[in-house]
Amino acid sequence: MVFVGVQTMFRLRLLFDNFTLILIAVVLAATFIPAYGVGATFFQWLTHFAIALLFFLHGAKLTRQAIIAGIMHWRLHVLVFACTFIVFPLLMLSLQPLIRPVLGDELWVGMLYLAALPGTVQSAIAFTSMARGNIPAAVCAASASSLVGILVTPLLVRLMLDADADAGTSGMMEAVAKISLQLLLPFLLGHYMRRWIGDWIDRNKSWLKSVDQSSILLVVYTAFSAAVIGGLWTAVPPLSLLMLGVICCVILAIVLFTTTWLARRFKFNKEDEITIVFCGSKKSMATGIPMASVLFAGSAVGPAILPLMVFHQIQLMVCAVMAQHYAQRCDEDGAQCTH
């Protein structure tokens, strides 16, 4: 019995890492102890500072060589960008008649936001490495996706949300202005400062990771506090959460199948296929949660990021299994995988 219990705990730790468990704890804290009044104002200002610091550090981490190298393997990057910013949104819009009646309007907005987000950086590279894919291409594709998404994501969100063309243009311009001031400017400043602080950043990547995670946790607490006060859990009952998980599983399966099929249809080798699958199918919580606090107002942030949080956990679990499967195939095939 003790051995079975240890095995169960070990499997749970594989599925839910420490950060995910802390994230769940933060959501529970915001549910039972939300920030009110002066406290909410304090957390909002602290969140703005944390987001600016987060994107400043992201800019400082990105080397000029990575930007230049990203241009070289252009066929792979075009396909990754197409899967991230075209295939995913079109798939979501095509499923609107099925998804929207089940989840409701608030979570549907979150699903559209999920579809418009850039891919992940750290986990996409980590899974590509684990699966023995094209690691340099993954670094370039993931970094470029994150950078381009700062401007492309708000445009896509507004295009999908606004039926009226004039209202859409106004909304897009306002969103781009906010993103440029609160996210892109710190990012560019951080990249400019890399010549002076780059070595220090590279030496301290391990503990600077905690800055990324702390920023996300802070945004989640602030967003869910406002959403809980605004009646989030009344509008999103447990059955809706269950259906959200099922829908995220189905969408991830479709996207994984599509990225794999496209990589093989365009005759990429196995290493490039692995990179395309892991970079083209994943959505970034590190970028998505801070950006949501800029694009959405008050209590709307919580429902907007809830699908992302659910999808993110599912993609980590599924991609971990896929990466192991790819690695085993590489061991069997030998010469086809060199990393």
**How many helices in DSSP terms?**
17
| CATH-derived architecture | Up-down Bundle
Rg (CA only): 20 Å
Number of strands: 0
Low-confidence stretches: 1-6, 8-12, 163-170
End-to-end separation in angstroms reads: 41 Å
- Which strand-content bin applies to the residues? under 5%
- CATH topology: the name is Na+/H+ antiporter like fold
**Sheet having the most strands:** none
One letter per element, helices H and strands E, the order comes to HHHHHHHHHHHHHHHHH
Rough outline: globular
Quote the average pLDDT: 80
Helix percentage range: over 70%
Top-tier CATH class: Mainly Alpha
Q: What structural category do the secondary elements indicate?
A: mainly alpha
User: How many domains, as an integer?
Assistant: 1
Question: What this model shows, in words?
Answer:
The chain has one domain (38-330): Na+/H+ antiporter like fold. It is built from 17 helices and no strands. It has helices at residues 2-15, 18-32, 37-61, 64-72, 74-94, 96-103, 105-116, 122-131, 135-161, 165-192, 194-203, 205-229, 232-235, 238-265, 270-280, 285-295, 301-333. The longest helix has 33 residues, at 301-333. The N and C termini lie far apart (41 Å). Mean pLDDT is 80; it is low at 1-6, 8-12 and 163-170.
